[in-house]
Design brief:
The chain is of the alpha/beta class. It folds into two domains: 23-52 and 280-371, Aspartate Aminotransferase, domain 1 (Alpha-Beta Complex); 55-275, Aspartate Aminotransferase, domain 2 (3-Layer(aba) Sandwich). Helices cover 38% and strands 14% of the residues. It has a seven-stranded mixed sheet with strand order 2-8-7-6-5-3-4, sandwiched between helices. It has a three-stranded antiparallel sheet with strand order 9-12-11, covered by helices on one side. A two-stranded parallel sheet has the order 1-10. Helix 2 (55-64) packs antiparallel against helix 10 (266-275), helix 4 packs parallel to helix 5 and helix 11 (279-302) packs parallel to helix 13 (356-368). The chain is globular.
C-alpha cells in the first residue's frame, strides 16, 4: 500500500530537482522471466563482464564474510595504498569510492556551485549530465563527431564558468575512443582553471598502441586531470561497487570531504585487493572479450545492423530506429539490451558482449523479431 500524500506545498524539495527523471533500473532477470513466462533470459544491457570475480577475489570475499558485522575501513587504506603503489603515485592522489560513478558524483559535489558549467560529449554516460544538474550546475553537451568525442568541440564550449570537462575514453555508449595524439592536443589547449575528468572505466579491455594510459601519461605529468578506473568490468566485481580516481591531491582531499564515511564495503575492498594480483586472468579475459566482440559484430551485421566503431571496450552501439520497440521485442524473446534514450540516442541500442552461448542466443532472438519493419531496424 502506498502512503497517502502529506499536506503541504513540498517546499522542502529543491527546485533544481523538478526536471530530473529518477534513474529507472531494469527489472531483475528473474522477474522478467516470471512475467513473460520464459525459460531463459540473457542480460546484455549493463556492460558487466560476463564472468564472475577472479578465484582469488572469491576467496577474499569468503575470508571477509565472518567480519561483516563490523564496519569497513572507511578510508580504504590498504586498497588505496596498493593502488598508489601499483600506479606509482602518492597515497594522497588516490580516492576509492563505490564505483567510478560515485567518484563522478563526489567530484561534482566537491567542485560545482549553482550556475557553474560542465562540458561533455553527447550522447555519453548520463551521470556527466545528471550529477551537475542535481547541484544546480549547467551541463553543456557537445555532439559527437562520427560517434566519437569531439575534443576540439569540447574546447570550443569551455567558458570562464566551466569547472569540469568530462571525457570518456572509451565512450559509453558508443564504444569508441579518442587516441593519444588527440588527448595530448586537448590537454595542451584546455584552460588551467578546468579540471578534466578522464573516464577510463574500460581501460583493461583496450588493445591499441595509440590508446594512452592516462595515469602515466597525463596525471603523472602534472595535467589537471582526475583519471577514473573501476573493478566493475573486467574484474567482475560490479555487484560490489568499487572504483577509484587518481589525480591532484587537493581534488582527492576535497572528494574525501564529501564522500560517505563507509562508502566501500569490506567485501569489495578485499576482493579488489585480491584482484590486483591476477594479471594472467586479466589477459585471458581481454582475449576472450576480443573474440566475443568480433562474434557479436558478425551477428549484428548478419541481421543488417552496423555497429558504431571502431569499438574497443566490451559493448556495441547500433542504430535501429525505434530502439525502445526493438528492445521490447527482444525482451519477449528472452534478451535484455539497453535502449539508449536516457543516454541521448533514442534510435540506438547498446548491447554488451556475453559468453559465446549468450551471443548465439541473441542471434536466435534477432531472427525471431526479424519481421519488424526494415525502417525500424535501420
Amino acid at each position: 500500500m502506498s502512503l497517502p500524500s502529506a499536506d503541504g506545498d513540498r517546499s522542502s524539495i529543491r527546485p533544481t530537482l523538478a526536471g530530473l527523471v529518477p534513474y529507472e533500473p531494469g527489472k531483475p532477470v528473474e522477474e522478467v522471466q516470471r512475467e513473460l513466462g520464459l525459460d531463459r533470459v540473457v542480460k546484455l544491457a549493463s556492460n558487466e563482464g560476463p564472468y564472475g570475480p577472479f578465484p582469488a577475489a572469491r576467496e577474499a570475499i569468503a575470508h571477509a564474510s565472518p567480519e561483516l558485522n563490523r564496519y569497513p575501513d572507511g578510508g580504504a587504506w590498504r586498497l588505496r595504498n596498493a593502488l598508489a603503489t601499483r600506479h606509482g603515485v602518492g597515497f594522497e592522489n588516490v580516492t576509492v569510492c563505490a564505483g567510478a560513478d560515485a567518484v563522478i558524483g563526489f567530484v561534482c559535489m566537491a567542485t560545482l556551485d549553482p550556475g557553474d558549467e560542465v562540458v561533455t560529449g553527447w550522447p555519453s554516460f548520463p551521470s556527466y549530465v545528471l550529477d551537475p544538474l542535481k547541484l544546480g550546475a549547467v551541463p553543456v553537451r557537445v555532439s559527437l563527431r562520427d560517434d566519437r568525442f569531439d575534443l576540439e568541440g569540447l574546447l570550443s564550449a569551455v567558458t570562464p564558468r566551466t569547472k569540469l570537462v568530462f571525457v570518456a575514453a572509451p565512450n559509453n555508449p558508443t564504444g569508441t575512443t579518442t587516441n593519444r595524439a588527440e588527448l595530448e592536443a586537448y590537454f595542451d589547449d584546455v584552460p588551467p582553471h578546468v579540471l578534466t575528468i578522464l573516464d577510463q572505466a574500460y581501460f583493461e579491455y583496450v588493445q591499441d598502441e595509440d590508446y594512452p594510459d592516462a595515469i602515466e601519461e597525463f596525471a603523472k605529468e602534472g595535467r589537471n586531470v582526475l583519471v577514473l578506473r573501476t573493478f566493475s568490468k573486467i574484474f567482475g566485481l560490479a555487484g560490489l561497487r568499487v572504483g577509484y580516481g587518481i589525480g591532484p591531491a587537493d581534488v582527492v582531499t576535497a572528494i574525501g570531504k564529501v564522500r560517505r564515511a563507509f562508502d566501500v564495503g569490506s567485501s569489495g575492498q578485499e576482493a579488489a585487493l585480491a584482484s590486483l594480483g591476477e594479471p594472467d586472468e586479466i589477459a585471458r579475459r581481454r582475449s576472450a572479450n576480443r573474440e566475443a566482440m568480433a562474434s557479436l559484430q558478425r551477428v549484428l551485421r548478419g541481421h543488417g545492423l552496423e555497429p558504431a566503431g571502431p569499438a574497443v571496450a566490451n559493448f556495441l552501439f547500433v542504430r535501429v530506429g525505434d530502439a525502445q520497440a526493438v528492445a521490447e521485442a527482444l525482451v519477449h524473446q528472452g534478451v535484455i539490451v539497453r535502449a539508449m534514450g536516457p543516454f541521448g540516442a533514442p534510435d540506438a541500442l547498446r548491447i554488451t558482449v556475453g559468453t559465446p552461448d549468450e551471443i548465439a542466443f541473441l542471434d536466435r532472438a534477432l531472427s525471431a523479431v526479424g519481421n519488424l519493419d526494415a525502417a525500424v531496424r535501420h
